[in-house]
Amino acid sequence: MENIQTGNDRERAARFTALYVRDHPRVSAFVYRRTGDRGSAEELTAEVFRIAWERVLGGEEVGTGWLFVTARNLLSNHHRAATRLTELHRRITDELDRAPASGEDSGVLETLERLPERHRDVLLLRYWDGLSTAETAAVVGCSGPTVWVRLHRAREAFREAFRDVHASPASLSPEESA
Fold first, then answer.
1. Per the count of CB atoms within 10 A, which of 45, 58, 92, 153 is most buried?
2. Predicted confidence band of residue 49 (pLDDT cuts 50, 70, 90)
């Protein structure tokens, strides 16, 4: 299929090109001053103009003010994401600096590794990640009642696998195996 531009499409493209040529350096500088990182500034500026292009294609007018408001909103999102990432790194560092896992922790982790993925996923989503039944259902792609059935089966599988891990000769102390 051939893409035929109408006169209206050409006018929109010309207006957008003029806007881009005129305002790209200003928006880019605005974003760079607020991020201090050239790469992030380029990505955010490109996103501003991508959104602007979509709006122009939709027949909306986009001006300099709109570009700066959009840039400011994207910067807010960028800073929130950076804050969340910093917090995640802090939490991971704190977790890694904790005392070594106890034998029981190791047994639980080993048991989880042995479970089929379908059981492990529903257990981790519900108990590790703390998702509600509805949230777990949305992630797994099923109904709430189905999550309850899967949780029941996963808990049963976990109990059985945990007993197997702790009953294996490798997990028994020399006194227990004698």
1. 45
2. very high
Each residue's pLDDT tens digit, 152-161: 999 999 989 8
Q: Does 1 fall in a domain?
A: no
pTM of the model as a whole:
0.49
36 and 71 together in one domain: yes
Q: What is the CATH number of the domain that holds 125?
A: 1.10.10.10
Domain count, the chain: 2
> What are the tokens at 170?
């490798």
State which residues form the domain around 162.
103-177
